[in-house]
Amino acid sequence: MPRVAVIPGDGIGLEVMREAVRVLEAVESRFSPGCELVHWDLGADRFLRDGITITDEEFASLSNDHDAILLGALGDPRVPGNQHARDILLGLRFRLDLYVNYRPAVLLDPALSPLKAPGDIRLDIFRENTEGVYVNLGGTFKEGTDRETAIQEDLNTFTGVERICRAAFEHAVKRGRSRVTLVDKANAMPAAGRLWRRVFALVASDFPDIDTDAMYVDAMAMDLVRRPTRYEVIVTGNLFGDILSDLAAELVGGLGAAASANVHPGRHALFEPVHGSAPDIAGQGVANPLGAIASAALMLDHLGHAEAAQAVEEAVVAAVDGGVRTADMGGDRSTEQVGTWIADRVLSG
Amino acid sequence: MPRVAVIPGDGIGLEVMREAVRVLEAVESRFSPGCELVHWDLGADRFLRDGITITDEEFASLSNDHDAILLGALGDPRVPGNQHARDILLGLRFRLDLYVNYRPAVLLDPALSPLKAPGDIRLDIFRENTEGVYVNLGGTFKEGTDRETAIQEDLNTFTGVERICRAAFEHAVKRGRSRVTLVDKANAMPAAGRLWRRVFALVASDFPDIDTDAMYVDAMAMDLVRRPTRYEVIVTGNLFGDILSDLAAELVGGLGAAASANVHPGRHALFEPVHGSAPDIAGQGVANPLGAIASAALMLDHLGHAEAAQAVEEAVVAAVDGGVRTADMGGDRSTEQVGTWIADRVLSG
Ligand SMILES: CC(C)[C@H](C(=O)O)[C@@H](O)C(=O)O
Ligand SMILES: CC(C)[C@H](C(=O)O)[C@@H](O)C(=O)O
């Protein structure tokens, strides 16, 4: 009986998560995975009310009493700097040590891409999720003066690099992909570069059937636009993964449909659409629920319900193919209409 | 009598610089700016022969006896890690304190863009060029072991941020642009973010007629693809500027035509095409000389020869319009044919 913590969060997070839950209920009827959905009320309202982002007890419960977390989106213009969002999202990634941030970018319809000749884009980005500049080490000297100096440390460890590289190669084998590409900036960041290149090669030697190559991040950003189909699996650090996964999502039609998994294999996992809380369109019923629904599919797969995951993925593809789309994808359906259509499709098979 | 150090460098650097020099000779005949071109033989051959990248005396001479440097490209597969390229290029940027890296990206023909609906892209990217992760501080603990930890420091100072922001705003005023956009990653790098946001606002207050906004780098990478015409002047740190300027160049047709200026206003300046030495196509006469020629135009403008600069820029636009293009731009002309055509055009006016 897997227990899933559902955190709708803020803004359109609430709207898209309603549809993801609707689809999970359809999955329950059809495949009986026995998922128990536990609603968690974290977000801006709670923070503004109680001044609490997330407590140690809540972290412990999410970590110990749940098999997965499904998150909508966090962020609210009433909270300066969105401190609650960073505390909760980055807090969960770090405290649950969710070192794999897996972000697939698949083009479902060439019309969705801003590129003239996108080709058949199918990118699997593996972003290291617990190190790099996100460790938030460093600080400020003489803050607020004209001598202010700010230092932000980018920290990478053998263990951190090894395990994300291994996850990328294992994924390549499992999904029948032929190449893993390392992205770094070894020509300007030699200490980080030496570590990543050595460990990448070390891990690669355990996977002799998978080809490898390495790209600098500037060249990669360019080449993702120029010839995205050249790449299959990309493995990279936290910051470059953040940038490249947003770029890749845009190339396949925007953040609306982008899903992600934050995983510590064998231990914990959090699934979330890549988009944010989008306060500008919240409450209008126009948000695209596909990112949240596709994230739920990644979760089902992670929980061992591959058949159910595939049914959801197929229903998402069918919705896009059938023009059942929200405005960001050129359609005219509401969030709920898309969610209901997909849930029905999952039910009827 | 401005003295210009011409460093062709390696690979296609030699080929494109030949054309830039040809165009500068045409400029000399027509406008008589009195530029003296001094050939500098730095590059992989010299490094492989003598083990020297660039000496202190050479730095001093480039710094004291020349008014500008025009660089082709550095990089050679025979040099491990292209150490000579980093030593010379980053050495010049840092030792001459060339803090402004100005990289314009202008779409000359919609057919050149990989985007379906590029619109009229005209981006001026101001990349901080002497700080950030490029300071190469940090190091490695227990290198080569399974406990290796690599730290790379991102360092920004008030002075560094202030002067690049000021350069961006001054440029906006001079070129009649209405908005400057700051790009950072303040939500994951708070120390750097606080400094950049505070100083950006401080400088902005001196330019009340220029609008401002701020974007996270991941959202910016995405939005540059989604709606590039929304942006005019972008100011950002060294690493994000590296990534975004390559991406922007690709959106307007690739690196071939991308020019850049590395400047310390009032002191020193180095001009170079954004592309590298491209060993894969070197020696074939197919390299695009527009990046080098447009960089020479930026140099002429910097040296106070605005009319000559404009003549070169117009000739570049005319070449592209007239289909006088190398293969990377869909044409069939050689490097020399494009260079000769532009030189003739400059001569005949
Ligand atoms: C909200 C922000 C801190 C976060 C990140 O940078 O990781 C977001 O951009 C993401 O990609 O999930
Ligand atoms: C060669 C490399 C060190 C350099 C950089 O990262 O600055 C290049 O990419 C550039 O943009 O000029």
UniProtKB/TrEMBL annotation, chains A, B:
Cofactor: Mn(2+); Mg(2+)
Record keyword Zinc present: no
InterPro entries documented for this protein: ICDH/IPMDH, IsoPropMal-DH-like_dom
Keyword field: Manganese, Metal-binding, NAD, Oxidoreductase
Record Pfam families: Iso_dh (PF00180)
Record-annotated Isopropylmalate dehydrogenase-like domain positions: 3-342
Name of protein: Isocitrate/isopropylmalate dehydrogenase family protein
Species assigned in the record: Gaopeijia maritima
